[in-house]
Amino acid sequence: MPTATLNMFFFIPFGIFIFSIVSIGWIISRKFVYLKKLTPEVVESVVPEQSGFWAEFFPVPTAYIQKVDLRQYRLNFLAEFEKFLRKLRLFSLKLDAVTNRLINRVRKSVMHHESVISSEAAAQAEQEVRISSDSGRGVDLEEQEHKLILEIATNPKDAGLYKKLGNIYMKMEEWHDAVESFKKAAELDPEDETTRNKLTRLLKKLEKLPI
Asked: In the prediction, which pLDDT does 47 show?
């Protein structure tokens, strides 16, 4: 280690120590000047106004602090803090009431929208079922029509097949085809009054329908 570094680590603390000793001696010598002016009677009669370490070294700030009524300040602080807590509690109660009203409104709105959505979904499902049932019925009637046409092709003298085909055309609201089917059935079975009555009603219905 260089000599300059050793000197720095030795002389600096030693200088600080010497300076502290000199300062303490100067302070004590100043105190002794005032103590020599006092007689023993005065020293015995003097009642120390300050007590404690900090009171002796800082008499003016200590006297000022002692004059301050900390208890009164504490009471005032506690009173104001109590008022603040009461106002805060009142504000929290008002906020709670407002939030409860808002929650109720939102809940009613959600329930209303849910009911509307569910009713719309139910109506849509019912409509889909109706459409599917109608389409299924139409497909069934068309299948029956094709089957009867094939059966009539193999047995064209069967009046019952034409009657069934006429009834299917009536369900399909194919009035002209129904008339033709019932005419053929009446030709093959002239004694069937039910078929002739259906044919008569269909002819009257066709007269009322627009051309």
From this structure: 47
